[in-house]
Structure formats: C-alpha cells, structure tokens
Amino acid sequence: MKKHIITLAGKNGSGKSSTGNKLAEMLGYERFSTGDFMRQMAEKKGISLEELGNLAQSDPSIDKSIDENSLKLAEMDNIIIDSRLAFHFIPDSFKVFLELAPEIAAERILKDKDNVHRQNEANADFSDKESIIKSITERLESERSRYKKYYNIEDHTAHENFDLVIDTSLYPMEQVAQIIYDTYQEWLKK
To answer: What predicted TM-score, i.e. pTM, was given to this entire model?
Structure first.
C-alpha cells in the first residue's frame, strides 16, 4: 500500500532542503531531514559533519542510529523525508532523487558560503571550487562504501531506485517542487 510519504534524496547542493520545504508548504506535510539529525549528532560529539562521516566508516552505530530514526518516521503519514536512504527503508513511499553535477553543486555551495550548514557539509576552503568538488566527491564515496557494507546497496544514487529523478540544474527550485507535486499526485491515483 502506498504511503503518503515523499522520500527525497539527492546529491550535495541539489536543493533537497529548499525543495523539501517548498513541497511541505504546498502539501501541508511535515518535513524531516536526516541531514539535520546528523548535524545534531555531530554537534553533540563536538565534531564536524565530515568528521562524523569519517567516523561512520568504522562505527556502524552512527548509520544505525540515523536509520532507526528513518524507520520511526515511516510510521507517520503526510511527511517529506530528506534522506539518502529513506527510499530503501520506506519502499512504499514516493521516491524522488535530485541529480546535480559536482561542478554545479560546488558553484551553488560557493554562492551559499555563509550558510553554516553548507560549511559543515563541504568542510572545504570556500574560495576554491576544486576543494569543494573533492570534498563532496569523497563524501559520496564514503557513503557508497558504507551503504554497500551495511545494507548491500550497490549505489544509493542509482536512478532505478526512484520513482522520479530530476536534474535540478535544469529548473528553478519552485518548478522542481511543482514537478514533484504533480507527479506525486498522479502516483497516488495509480
């Protein structure tokens, strides 16, 4: 049975937070973010988000805690979950992936360099696009390695995992949200 849950995954800088917030407003849903949960976890440990990701390579309890949080959310209804793996843990959700080339992601992160979440996300020299690309690429590879090891997921960014894939470089955020909204309404009717 289909759940009234949209799981929103995507590459760094693809607009998951902004799109998720806009969709929540359009649908009257509540939005949750595993990124926010991870930032809180990193803050409690007194480390950066990148350091938490590195620690997760050898400490499976970090990912397990994040995943348990997603499973609790699966019991709810009328929500949007911004999460890399919620598509896996909530298979009856409407699964969306926001695609973005690393070069464009780095440009967006540079433009948003005063955003504290962005700084923690990339943990790179914000005057250098190449450093940001390197940092987000390393983070993606770390996630791929962990998710393969812990869940046997070959590639959590593979488009076949999702009901809808949108390249966010092609549309403004409001249009991305509208495409998701319209496609979700059609999905619910099927």
So the answer is: 0.87
